[in-house]
Write a structure and sequence with these properties.
The structure holds two protein chains of two kinds. In chain A, about 65% of the residues lie in helices and about 0% in strands. Chain A starts with a helix and ends in a 6-residue tail after the last helix. Chain A is globular. Chain A is mainly alpha-helical. Chain A has helices at about 5-30, 35-65, 70-75, 95-115, 120-150, 155-170, 180-185, 190-210, 235-240, 245-250. Chain A has one domain: Up-down Bundle (Ferritin), CATH 1.20.1260.10. Chain B is of the alpha/beta class. Chain B folds into two domains: about 5-80, Fe-S cluster assembly (FSCA) (GMP Synthetase, Chain A, domain 3, 2-Layer Sandwich), CATH 3.30.300.130; about 105-160, no CATH class. Chain B contains four helices and seven strands; from the N terminus they run ααββαβαββββ. Chain B has a four-stranded mixed sheet with strand order 4-7-6-5. In chain B, strands 1-2-3 form a three-stranded mixed sheet. Chain B is elongated and about 60 Å long. The chains are: A mainly alpha, B alpha/beta. The interface of A and B includes residues 51, 128, 133 and 140 of A.
Chain lengths: ~250, ~160
């Protein structure tokens, strides 16, 4: 593997792993307080999947010479995290968490679908595994967005408001990497712009059927920065909470 | 001298810690067993059912303990993603073991093509009726979905299809 290829793969793995770790932790904040038991379990299960998937990606980074997964997950500061800003926002009300999950996981399923034939074989293997798991995340998000979009006037308004709030943040998922041309030319994957097109095609009919309106494309202002370590005031407190126990005794054997 | 087939046989007695009627072999998560006769060591490779399965480390320990109990000097138990686990890997015996635990087995021979519609076409493990519905694709563990039988009015779980 040449140096440029390795750099491109590492940057890609970091941002994907960080998205999963951070959204996994956010989803886990619903444990015990979900609006109904099934939703409590669903968000907790998706949290578990995402944190497990992030571990597998950090493990690949470790194989490429980066630090151990626990060190990477628990000792970096916020400028070293490459997650998009969408995933770091607090869980807010259920409508926000649901809409974020719907927008993110539709992209996530397609992302790994596109990576199943990656020239970086370890990633292709993980992609095949993750895809089977992510189908359920998409299924869950689609089902509830549909139900609440078609529900009461209040549920519809809440879903529309959340869609409006999430939209530019969700476009930030697709912030391009400085290595984008290497990623594409080396067939590591087809890149963020291609993913964004597939994502729009996937979510448009679902939102339309749910009676929800995507903001006018003239108003779109993707929120970028997350991929290069620029974050909102929401990330650092989360990192501090996530690492509180770890920091008590970083070398502890569990 | 311990042979590979003895290890496979022994691993049929190592049960999934969350579903104690099914062995790790019947669950299809053991992909390789190798014995080095010269120095009496072995290696066993596992694949995870779900990336986030919290039982994985426990299962590795259980496998290690079992192999050592056969008189192997040292065993290397590792987990990788080289083969993607799917529910097609569950053996016929394993499917019966799931039923024994009150879990509806996953649909057979999906060949990786799993449409989510299969989740609502599940036979109740208690009365075998297909008059059932999916209540949520997530259950008490990552590998289970929750269902309700409108025939015998009983909630049940399915070992959900993954592929």
């Amino acid at each position: 593997m040449n140096e440029k290829y390795a750099q491109a793969v590492k940057e890609l793995l970091y941002k994907m792993a960080d998205d999963l770790l951070i959204l996994g932790h956010r989803n886990s904040e619903w444990t015990g307080i979900g609006p109904m038991l099934e939703e409590d379990i669903s968000f907790s299960s998706m949290a578990q999947d995402k944190i497990g998937q992030s571990l597998a990606l950090y493990q690949l980074l470790n194989n490429l010479g980066e630090a151990e997964p626990d060190t990477v997950a628990f000792t970096r500061n916020q400028q070293q995290f490459h997650n998009c800003q969408l995933v770091e926002y607090p869980i807010g009300e259920y409508d926000f968490s649901l809409m974020r999950h719907f927008l993110f996981d539709n992209a996530e399923l397609l992302r790994y679908d596109m990576m199943m034939d990656s020239s970086y074989e370890p990633l292709a293997k993980l992609a095949r595994k993750f895809k089977g798991e992510l189908k359920y995340h998409k299924f869950h998000g689609d089902t509830f967005v549909m139900q609440l979009g078609k529900g009461t006037a209040e549920s519809k308004k809440r879903m529309q408001d959340s869609l409006n709030f999430c939209w530019n943040l969700a476009l930030g998922i697709f912030e391009e990497s400085p290595y984008e041309s290497t990623l594409i030319n080396e067939a590591i994957w087809k890149g963020e712009a291609a993913l964004k097109l597939r994502w729009l095609e996937a979510i448009e009919p679902i939102l339309a059927e749910a009676g929800l309106t995507i903001p006018d494309s003239n108003t779109w202002k993707p929120v970028y920065g997350g991929r290069v370590g620029k974050h909102t005031e929401n990330l650092q407190p989360l990192l501090e909470e996530m690492t509180e126990v770890f920091r008590v005794d970083p070398g502890a054997e569990w | 001298m311990v042979e590979e087939k003895q290890i496979w046989k022994a691993l049929e007695e190592v049960m999934d810690p969350e579903i104690p009627t099914i062995s790790m072999v019947d669950l299809g998560i053991i992909t390789q067993v190798q014995v080095n006769q010269t120095d009496n060591t072995a290696s066993v490779t596992l694949i995870p059912t779900f990336s986030g399965c919290p039982a994985l480390r426990v299962m590795e320990d259980m496998v290690r303990e079992k192999v050592l109990s056969l008189g192997i000097q040292k065993v290397d138990v590792s987990t990788n993603f080289d083969t993607a686990w799917t529910t097609d890997r569950i053996t016929e015996k394993g499917r019966k073991a799931l039923l024994q635990h009150g879990l509806a087995p996953p649909p057979e021979h999906t060949g990786g093509l799993i449409e989510l519609s299969v989740l609502s076409d599940v036979a109740c493990p208690y009365c075998q009726s297909k008059n059932t519905r999916l209540t949520t694709p997530f259950g008490p563990t990552l590998c289970r979905s929750m269902h309700y039988c409108d025939n015998c009015l009983q909630a049940f779980e399915q070992f959900k299809p993954v592929g």
